[in-house]
Amino acid sequence: MTVVESSRYEDDRFDAIRFVRETFADEDRPTAIINQANANVLNRVLQELSVAGLSVPEDVSVLSCGTYFACGTYFDGELMSRPITEMPVMPEKLCLQAMGLLVSAIEQGVKIKGDVELEAPAVKLRGSVAEISPGERALKVASR
Question: Tell me, what's the pLDDT at 72?
Fold first, then answer.
């Protein structure tokens, strides 16, 4: 996997038009975008992909990774121009697990060095990520 991270532009602002034009200008363009911004930014990127003649997920997959709030997923309450597959990050749940390990180390003397508990991702499939078949070219990701 090759990761191409977007940069901030003038006045530390993200420019969706520039991002899409620069990132998808050549033939060796990314096959996926992993979004870590709000719905407004992602809507602008989706609009610019459309202007550039790129279809989601046919030409580029789009996945959003964001914080899961107690009230719902990352995009709850935000208007999206189209459904986007999400993989919410759940800090409350992860922090509770980390604190539990720390407390057991302090109070019970449990050795936690190297202790790892993996949490299965809570992916919400919404059709914006294409499936790949064996032998397809390597994934190149643009992260915003």
Answer: 43
